[in-house]
Design brief:
The chain is an alpha/beta fold and 236 residues long. It has one domain. The protein contains 4 helices and 12 strands. The strands form 3 sheets. The chain has a 6-stranded mixed β-sheet with strand order 2-1-3-5-4-12. It has a 4-stranded antiparallel β-sheet with strand order 6-7-10-11, with no helix packed on it. The chain is globular, with a radius of gyration of 18 Å.
Length: 236
């Protein structure tokens, strides 16, 4: 069997007591429609998403829904890689806010498609006002507090490839699906981004205000050269 990087199989599994299998399976057609009709035209990467019970194919990307994170109950979900990409969604914390996991499921599907090994970043050069930064390739974080509906199911907004390209001028391109962003690397209020910053290392930056809970990402590599880059005289 030929495994396609541009259209992998994503298996969604339910190990949660908060949701029954039928409730999870009903979300998948809307997420599939988002990937096929909205995300793939923008990014050139699609997916086949299926609800799966029992043993899943060895080449599949896997998303497992659990009750809560044993390490930190405040997290809604995260994606890592264990050979093939793997993600977890924690239904108890996620459903406490809006009674659904659909936004987080959408979020994790889109982000594991673009950065399956959790190791990509985009370089933004610094100047006299700000340091060099590496922005991790998380396509929902900067806009994750905004959603839209497909067939009644809430799905997460996402950025376009141009958001990661510092050369574009303000207003010259569409930077996210809902057209809320005006420039590359902009972060909406209430949203966030994980970066690697010259002279500092890894940190989270915020769009004016923090969010209480957010998906988490376990990165497998970092742009270490930024640790040793000279810092500008003034940092904002």
């Amino acid at each position: 069997m030929t495994v396609r990087r541009t259209k992998p199989l994503i298996c969604v599994r339910n190990d949660s007591n908060e949701l029954d299998d039928e409730a999870v399976a009903k979300l998948i057609p809307a997420i599939q429609k988002q990937v096929t009709e909205h995300f793939e035209p923008a990014w050139g990467i699609g997916a086949r998403i299926k609800f799966h019970e029992g043993k899943y194919p060895s080449h599949a990307y896997v998303i497992t829904i659990k009750d809560e994170d044993e390490e930190d109950e405040t997290f809604l979900g995260y994606h890592i890689h264990n050979g093939y990409p793997e993600a977890f969604i924690f239904a108890k914390a996620d459903m406490a806010e809006d009674k659904t996991i659909s936004e987080t499921l959408s979020h994790e599907v889109l982000e594991m498609l673009i950065d399956p090994a959790v190791n990509l970043y985009a370089y933004r050069p610094g100047d006299t006002r700000r340091p060099d930064r590496g922005y991790f390739y998380e396509v929902c974080d900067a806009v994750q507090c905004h959603h839209y509906r497909i067939d009644g199911v809430k799905v997460c907004n996402f950025v376009y490839p141009e958001w990661f390209e510092h050369n574009w001028k303000r207003g010259s391109r569409q930077f996210d699906h809902l057209k809320l962003l005006e420039r590359p690397f902009q972060i909406l209020p209430g949203c966030y981004m994980d970066v690697y910053e010259a002279g500092v290392g890894e940190r989270t930056i915020w769009g004016k205000q923090h969010v209480k809970r957010r998906p988490r990402h376990r990165r497998t590599s970092r742009p270490e050269f930024l640790l040793h880059a000279p810092q500008p005289e003034v940092v904002t």
